[in-house]
Amino acid sequence: MFFALSKVVFFIIRPSNFLLILLGLGLFLLFTKRDRAGRHFVLLAFIGFLAFGLGPLGNMLMQPLEDRFPTPTDIGEIDGIIVLGGAIDTVVTGSRPLTALNSSAERVVTVAELARRFPNARVAHTGGEGLLLGSGTSEAEGVLPIFLSFGIERERIVLEDKARNTWENATLTKTMLEPKEGQKWLLVTSAYHMPRSVGVFEAAGWTGIIPYPVDHRTRGPQDTKRWFVGVAEGLKRTDIAVKEWIGLIVYYATGRSTALFPAP
């Protein structure tokens, strides 16, 4: 229920979709007695597309998320690497001979170096299919041949193929891996997703988690004033950042995170 409701609600409030709905409503009202309200809605939609599509608001929302957890340099020995799903295009992968990666591919690509750096660590990938209307292909199916091509032995690889969101990533992986007290697990996900991931994993009972953020979309504070060259690029950045901020609030309110904005 939580999964389906979250997908439907965010589809509506997603900034790019919401602005389109607002524009459509405004255009409709222009041909009714509420034409004045229609003009206001059209104007608001235009301002929204300008602010969220070309303006720096997307970067302003993204940058604090990405800089919350620095990428560690001195890690020491670890027991395992946990990679969160989100990098595999399950729709395309299910219809093509090779695995299709999306813009979060760095989550998977980083594993090649980490597996060599920590040869004794288990490599776990968690992710089923996070779409409300999916293709029937799990991320686990797509990521296995990639991990094997990295030279990682099959016996080191653990694949969790049922999780549809971050909470299920944490709980289902915990059940599979059965982490012991004192163990250290490297958590790999996109930098903007790391604050929510850490809070969720801690709420699920994980200890010894070491955040390893990858897939940065901004350079840092200097990008909070950088405008976009295309509306689609800016809207996508804004959609991702807004989803994370809403996710932080909802997960904390429902007891699925240890903090509203988890910190190191």
Structure description:
- It is a single chain.
- This protein has 264 residues and is an alpha/beta fold.
- The chain has two domains: 2-66 and 227-253, no CATH class; 80-214, HUPs (Rossmann fold, 3-Layer(aba) Sandwich).
- The protein contains ten helices and five strands, in the order H-H-H-H-E-H-H-E-H-E-H-E-H-E-H.
- The chain has helices spanning 2-13, 15-29, 35-54, 57-66, 90-93, 106-117, 139-149, 166-177, 194-203, 231-253; strands spanning 80-84, 122-126, 157-160, 185-190, 209-214.
- Helix 9 (194-203) links the parallel strand 4 (185-190) and strand 5 (209-214).
- Helix 4 packs across helix 10 (231-253) and helix 8 crosses helix 9 (194-203).
- The longest helix has 23 residues, at 231-253.
- It is elongated.
- The mean pLDDT is 93.
Name its key features.
264 residues, alpha/beta, Rossmann fold, 5-stranded parallel sheet, 5 strands, 49% helix, 10% strand
Main sheet record: 5 strands, parallel
| Helix and strand sequence | HHHHEHHEHEHEHEH
CATH topology category name of the largest domain: Rossmann fold
In the CATH scheme, the class of the largest domain would be Alpha Beta
The total number of structural domains is: 2
For the CA atoms, what is the radius of gyration?
A: 20 Å
Percentage of residues in helical conformation = 40-55%
CATH architecture descriptor name of the largest domain = 3-Layer(aba) Sandwich
Average of the residue pLDDT scores:
93
Return the structural class: alpha/beta
The fraction of residues assigned to DSSP E strands is 5-15%
Termini separation: 31 Å
Extended strand count: 5
CATH superfamily of the largest domain, called what? HUPs
Q: Give the low-pLDDT segments.
A: none
How many H/I helical runs?
A: 10
Estimate the global geometry from the Cα principal axes.
elongated
Give the strand order of the largest sheet, numbering strands 1, 2, ... along the chain. 3-2-1-4-5
